[in-house]
Amino acid sequence: FLDLFGGSGTIIMNANAEHYIYNDINYHLVDMLRGIRESDSANIVSEISDIISENRLYEEDGGACGCDLS
What is each CA distance from 59 to 25, 32, 56, 70, in whole angstroms? Predict the structure, then answer.
């Protein structure tokens, strides 16, 4: 699967293919998606949850998250 204008990576993350090629002009985005691909998803979710907690981004605290972390 070849994603010429990768952007957020939504298309490639939902594609079912044997091989993937992601392309974007923004090398920061490419590096971020590479890091996500190479990391354990449980660790990513845990780190995001920690950031939400540390910054009090809960909906009831007036934050914009709207996440249910219960």
Answer: 34, 26, 9, 13
On whether the CB atoms of residues 46 and 62 are closer than 8 A, the answer is no
CA angle 51, 52, 55 (to 5 degrees): 80
**DSSP string spanning 5-54?**
T-TTSHHHHT---SS-EE--S-HHHHHHHHHHHHS-HHHHHHHHHHHHHH
The reported pTM is 0.52
| Span 27-67, pLDDT tens digits | 998 898 888 888 898 998 999 899 888 888 876 655 555 55
